[in-house]
Amino acid sequence: MINLYFIGSAGSGKSSLTGAYAGWMENQGYDAITVNLDPGIENAPYVPYVDIREWINLRDIMNEYGVGPNGAQIIAADMLALNINEMKEIIESSESEYVIFDTPGQMELFVLRQSGKVLVDSFGSDNSILGFLFDPIISRTPNGFISLLLQAASIQVRFNTPFISILTKSDLLGQEEKDKIMKWSSDFMELGGAMNMERPTMRTQLSLEFLSALKSSGANQTIIPVSSTYGSGMEDIYNAAQQIFYGGEDLSKD
Fold this sequence. Notes:
The protein has a 7-stranded parallel β-sheet, with helices on both faces.
């Protein structure tokens, strides 16, 4: 069983990608289920096989603890760990080959709260992949792209789990913009050159220093462009997962 967690900032397209990728898997004849870990989601573009909202209700938390929506999200994130055993039992009973996790909209609630790390470890970090979503609008500029690289690097350090980088909503970008981002992801010298073309500032210098540190850590990897709207890039995500766990060999289809 492979666990794939889609992680990214609010609006980066986690839920849409979860639905699109699950649909692609089904069309290809692969056995996959989806898990919603966001208690605040209202209209998911897929039907979760396991849904955290069955155990955690934000409105109930607000009433019980006298907090607002943001406070309820934080409490809900900590409560996530309390329901791991129930979720794990349901997931394992499905005997699915692939489990796709849609993480909370506010990324820090899953990444920085201890419950996120506990959940990944409980389901098995050795058979898990973190898919970090690069927002296409933020990725358009060198500074924005570097800020996302730093977020991705911090997640890698925290979870110490196989990792892939995904450029979501690539259909919103022109071909030239997409090619530029792809080049930046695989060639930090190209990204550094783009930084140097901007007006030198203290912030730019700081970004260049961070970029140098990221290069030393081996954080650069080619990004996978996808579009949930048009279904493009799904096979590339699948192939990346296969390469990580099976050296490229295909999963057996039921």
